[in-house]
Fold each of these.
Amino acid sequence: MRQQIEGSQAVAQAVAACRPQVICAYPISPQTHIVETLSRLTKAGEVPGCEFMNVESEFAAMSVAIGASAAGARAYTATASQGLLFMVEAVYNASGLGLPIVMTVANRAIGAPINIWNDHSDAMSQRDSGWLQLYAETNQEAADLHVIAYRLAEELSLPVMVCMDGFILTHAVEEVDVPERDQVDAWLPPYAPRQVLDPDDAASIGAMVGPEAFTEVRYLAHARQMQALELIPQVCDSFQQHFGREAGGLVRPYRIDEDGQRAETVVVALGSVLGTIKDVVDARREQGESIGVLGIQSFRPFPMEAVRSALDGVRRVIVVEKAFSVGIGGIVASNLRMALDHLDIELRTVVAGLGGRPITTRSLHALFDRRDSLEPLEFLDLDRELVDRELERHAAGGRTGGAAENLLKDLGSVRSTPH
Amino acid sequence: MREKPFAITLDVGSSLANHTGTWRTERPTYVHLMPPCNNACPAGENVQAWLYEAEEGNYEQAWRALTADNPFPAIMGRICYHPCQTACNRAELDEAVGINAVERFLGDEAIAQGWRFHQSETLSGKHVLVIGAGPSGLSAAYHLRRLGHEVTIRDLAPLAGGMMRFGIPSYRLPRGVLADEIRRIEDMGVTFELGQRVESLEEPLDAFDAVFLAVGAQLGKRAYVPAGEAAKIVDAVTMLHDMEGEEKPQLGRRVVVYGGGNTAIDAARTAKRLGAEEAIIVYRRTRDRMPAHDSEVREAEEEGILLKWLSTVQHADAGKLVIEKMELDESGFPQPTGETEELEADSLVLALGQETDLSLVEGLEGVEIEGGVVKVDERMMTGRAGLFAGGDMVPAERTVTVAVGHGKQAARCIDSWLRGEEFVHPERPALATYDRLTTWYYSDAPHKARPLIEPARRQGTFDEVVQGLDERSAMYEARRCMSCGNCFGCDNCFGVCPDNAVKKLGTGAYMYEFDYDFCKGCGLCVEECPSGSILMVPEEG
Amino acid sequence: MTQTHESAAHDHLKFYQVGSFAIGNRLLPLEVRSVQADPERNNAITSGHRACQGCGEALGARYAVDAAFRAAQGKLVAVNATGCLEVFSTPYPETSWRIAWLHSLFGNAPAVASGVAAAYKAMGRDDIRVLGQGGDGGTVDIGFGALSGMFERNDDVLYVCYDNEGYMNTGVQRSGATPPAARTMTTQAVGEAPGNPFGMGKDVPRIAMAHEIPYVATATVADLHDLEAKVTRAMEFRGARYIHVLVPCPLGWGSSSHDTIKVARAATQSGLFPVFEAERGDVTAVSRIRKRVPVEDYLRLQKRFAHLFTPERDEEVLAKLQARADRNIARYGLLGPDGDIEEGIAARRDELEGEGAQ
């Protein structure tokens, strides 16, 4: 049903339509509206056969989901940022045990300094966790991806993380065609676990594995995730046929090929920023610039082939990403570099939108205007003067207090209190 | 489950492929140790084994296990001084198991139920003469009969029983009980020739394949007591013997018994029952040095018997005795003090020990006599081939139980000798000492004493003083047994093994088996075995 | 604490030579014999596991799980924290478990168990019962938040902690359950105050009681009947239940492998480890001390306390440890209603005479 609805509400309703059996929740912004809504729906009896558990930590939330999933229940939880990090041990464990849990990550920065606003540092930190990671561009896609996520998770017996930008999507009210339970019932089969804790068919789940078999276990985990590269397009096609709209997939090219010509420049990004980028690209296409966009919907598994074929022949790729690996730079860019091995493509990384800093069309235009002179790694809208000053202070030696505090002092937004 | 993920998920119980037994340097093994009760029993009873049956209420099996060694449970249960109880490990925990009471219960139950001994299936064709129908002779006859030999038993007395009949008062051993247990031996086909004096051994040694001599020690020791002509002095053996005759001994109103053994007590208590107003025991030493059994002394005191310590009879006259006070020297011997007193006494009964009538063996070729008794070798054979001897007439402690044990031992040796073999004692296992037990597991359970009839009711009657236990109490007492050194099926080994390396094969003793494929040799089963019936032994190699 | 009464664990046993204390009793009717006396017992952990010789945890876990298995009529699943129990039972390619069993992590076993319970509730499978289990590290330390959460929500899980008073799997380090003065690899017997410092202690059974959950009990591997009775009793409740079982560790405690049960017994008989049960926050029964021993009898069996006796006796620390035992004895009335052990024995004697003979 089409409705004007907050992103979190839409996601909650989509999750509820999937008939989850155990939902565990621990509050953290900006994910809270999702579990609040699920709590209300469950308590009101609108999610039949579902247990909603308020747990004492994200670590417990993922652990409860592990137990529930192992016992054969469809399990769901949601988190963000510090919460995701707090549950990391269990995140890896869920995938290691091959449990098809679906979790929403309402993407948010990671402290210190503490920051509640959006970027992709949290989800990106879990790119090696063995989970599938699907990034939503819009609230419609966020809602739909949860339905898709259950289908994928249960077919692969692997957990799936649906990443949606905190606040930008979670708190945005827009029109969404929320998947209805009847529709979902007709498309998503009931959970048939690959392995289950069953007193009548007992097994020991979660054995200790030594050097003699650990590599094989990890290889198989990798192989299984790689199978998703084939499965995701099939499932998303099926979804499109059933629900009548596109959602998910591996990658989504936009205006890369026009008039039989492959774009000179392609901007690559994940999540909601794709909307802004597309607006800028549209404007620049109007000006005759040969520029397109490649959205990556599935970051794990990383669609190496799809990315390569989408970008083969372009001259320049600019990756706009909302996280980076301190000490090297772009994370998405590094992954792209592997996909574009031996292709003569200039790759530039632009780190943008950290800790909720808006990525404006003006800044993007300015960025793309300099497309021929970009550094390999740039930070969008970085206050160069400020950081240079701070670096000088460091270079001068002596104790200068926390860098973050100094930066803020320079910005004049806090006053230092005398010690 | 559709398919198990590789390595992460495993099939149940698959660790059975991992044989942890290879870790072991020592292995537990079930053993049978010697329980102290069995060890102490002069008759060689397997006390622990028959208590095991009794505690289940299998009284007939218990009785059969008992009588495999001793044919007189009803008698033993009354007159045995139960060294088994003195040795009982339970005494260290709370109080000894009332083994003797359970034995009596079983004996009485056998009489009441009419249980009979089984006959030997095959007969040897050998004929053994037993001389003396006392405990030793009867026991030998019984065991020889069980071994398939023809047995004739001869005794001068008109009735069988020896000292059990002519020495032990009936208030301790009712004659009906005695008769019942002797009759059971007779029923096995043993020929009794009573009232017959054996004049010489030469003829029997020719006529029989072997002879077992067990004539006891029936002569009262005569100590010299200066006495006036009118003084009435009798010896205790004769006095107690005469109790079985028509004419009861005439002892008067005041009777003094001189001596400190069980016979002295018997004599004093009998005198009291015969109507003596006062019965006084005069003994040279102190009570703690008295050879008489404590329970007998206690019962005597309850009946009003007076005890006069540190005293000797210096002179006897009509109606009175002169008593000299003694004192113990540094080494504990009584020494005269020269201080005397008079004691009124109508008669003086001497209970100063017994001697054997050795007339049969004196001068017999090969037979050696030493210290008034007959020398025998470890086979209980005298120096004369085919002549065996036992009971009070050979060097040993003189009790009925020892005599019964001699009878059994002699029977086995005679049996071996008749077959031209050497009797070899089975090797005695190590003693199940208290420190081998894990007594935690035994419930606190105080001893149930046998009831006694009131002292007032004992006056003037020869009713049995000590009563038997009822079945419930007997079973309770049997269940107090700690089964020292022998498995009794408590399941501790089966339960405490962290490796499930003990298999339980059924219910009962030794119904377990170690699974050495998995036993790591931790020794928990050994430590937690209540009865100490498992030992660790080093692995070979 | 409200009034207490004698533990009900043995009431049904008729007196016989070792009736109340040994594992089995050939004279008892089959239906009242212990689970561990049954030749057909489940053996939740079967042979071939790699626990050390004389492992108390392997023993305690089989006792507890087999009893729970019987109470659940076979419909039992277990969730296991990381630790010795997990490592020695399930190294690929072999598992010793014969029940449905799940291991996730060190610090999350209670939460995973909650999740399993929630799943069965959601699926309407109230016939399947959930057991959570772990060592003291996984329970009182790293998994403590999850445990408390499970208690507070009253999730339908019986959680059993096998307390061996340290991180044994990693090579004997101190845990929140390590007793004062004990030597571990992180509280060595060196310096001014050798061994584990006297902290404030972390009495998790009492903390569990503070949650007012339906059932809390302590037990040891020294009293099988008591342990089985408590597991069975716990299984009669729904909601969060907790049993804290003392399981000596020969490796970590420096005790002989054959002394595992003896050590546990000494812990109870000295008063250092009180054995009791509680319902909804109140103590309902205590196991009285049967043969009281000084704490020294317990300590001397273990090398981890050897520095209290050599090169010379540390009277001060021994007195402090004895005081801890005395405190337990007073707090739980371990010697009887009036602290009079004689009275307790007399009561037992009456009971036995009633059973044994008139």
Amino acid sequence: MTQALQTIALGLLIGGVYALMAAGLTLVFGIMNIVNVAQGAFLVLIAMLTWKAWQLTGLDPILLALATTPLMFGLGWLLYRLVVVRVRGTTPAMSMLLTFGIALTIEGLLNLTAGNYFRSATPSYFAQSFHIGSIVLPKAQVYGCLAALLVLGLLYLVLNRTWTGRAIRATAQNPSGAALVGISASSVAALSFAIGTATAGTGGSILSVLYPFFPASHYEWIARLLGIIVLGGMGSLRGAWVGAIILGLAETITATYGSPRWATLVFYAVILLVLLVRPHGLFGTRLREDVAT
Amino acid sequence: MRDKPARVRLTALVAAVAMLVAGCTGSNQGGGSGPIVIGTSLPLTGQFSQPGGEAKRGYEIWRDKVNGTGGLLGRQIDLRVTDDASNQDTIIADYTKLITQDRVDLLLGSFSSLLNYAASAVAERNQMLYVEPAGGAPNMFTRGFKMLFFTQPATAPHHADGITAWVKSLPEAQRPKTAAFITQDDPFTRPAIDSLQKQLEEAGLRTTYTTIYPANTTNFQPIAGAIAAGAPDLVAQGAQFEDGIGAVRALQQVGFSPKVLFQTNAPGNGNQYSDGVGKAATEGVFYSTSWSENAKTPLNDEFAQEYRKRFNAPPTEDAADAFAAGQVLQEAVTKVGRIDQVALADWLRGNEVQTILGRLRWAANGEPQGNFMLAQWQAGKVEVVAPKEAATTEKVVFPKPAWP
């Protein structure tokens, strides 16, 4: 019983962080039909910056998200205005090529500047745990999950309770309708892309504490994130949530009761099964409409 | 108008001839007085980019050392490094191109068993000597290859012999009684840990837990939990790098500290390892190593100093292994006196070579016949604890202190 609870608790904690990382990806796809394969590179970029800042100042890496998130928002906005806007309205393949190029550029720059080394931030609590009864909750994972939930909550509020959020959702549902009532498609697109990349700011800062990373780590992360949003339904925030939790649970449950060797396989087997029954993923049927639900 | 296609055809023909001629003049079958071209393809990007980058450093230090002291057979070395992106298909294409188009005089190997497995087959097919600084998986040497030589002291199944010998050297009452074995699903670490498990079971230890996890595993808490449940005295992990750090962290998080912790490769990464797990948590961790900065082998000091000067960091085992591969190639060419691939291979099969790792010699299949050293983290530094003649300290930290 304890082992089962322990396994589920760990799975949920990990799932929360995955959810945040996948949220930006699914949001950008839902609104703009762009598959941003650079999201993993953004995560690693921010993890590296967080690590450096933590080394220099000793500030808490997860709290550094307060700085890295706005930074990524700015970078996302700039990238959209300068580069991504040029592939808007072309096929998704073009946007994948472009963002893959961005990912390779980031990897290369990190290689040159930060060097090809594994890093990981190790604040005082990184190897400590909370003990609830006989259940162990690693502190880093708990803080990381809380930060992720906070940002996801804010994202939900922005999309559902503000005019900006409404404009974003309106554009997603019906671009020409939105344009007719005076919503500027290009500024909404820039804003959405910026919000999407901003989630990589928080995600990257959390990653720096949870896992060792190096410039080429982004392949592993983007594979995971794409898996999550395909399972959940591309474009659906709720889907990203559910997909992330399923991945977190699949990883820990398979590793505990089966063998870690099967963890990845089980997750992809779930994707395969879901796609057989629901080709759009779990929540992807109303692809464009349910972005923010 | 009509002569245009003809002219295009003519241009193409001339270009083709030019290329052919260039190809011919580029070919260099061991004679001549120009530089000796040595080709290699390393994983400079991707999964193995970390050891790949270190290998490049080791090769370059070796090249400059040779070129600074009169070159090889009186000729300068021109080292050509290509990037295989940690990909088996790419490395096959790279070595094929190096051999058939660039017509390099000599080859040096790549990093990781995975990549060397494919690359050494290309070299063998083309009858090119293949001296590799990594690639100790046992299945490298069961293919009957004649041109392959591995320049570390031993292959994977003997990687952990040192820890077994140390366990056996303990008085009966102090010996660990139980052990857990976990390893990455990797052609090098798996046979190393499998063989260690067999050896320790024969020595009377009871196995409480074993598992194999894939290379991309990031969450080690479930594994750490399962290890802790059996509370073994000894934990051995076939760890490349990230996974070694992940496991130590997770063991700390679940609050289980074994009396003996052995990891195959991860602790050999110096500062990167101690930064990753936290300096205090390194105390007492054992690992096997092919090289020690403090070893008194010829040129070792020079290599270490040059590395520190160039890269402003402590030298690494991977770079040292690459340097040693260069030394092996150099010794063979010097002794044979000409570049004749088969003669070079025959010479290596029959002779010992002194390197910064120590003296190396090989079985007929290119498998090295030496032993790794047993190293241990002590007070934030790496010390060699066995064998005696290479040891840098007589002290062994046992049992490992509890996590900080």
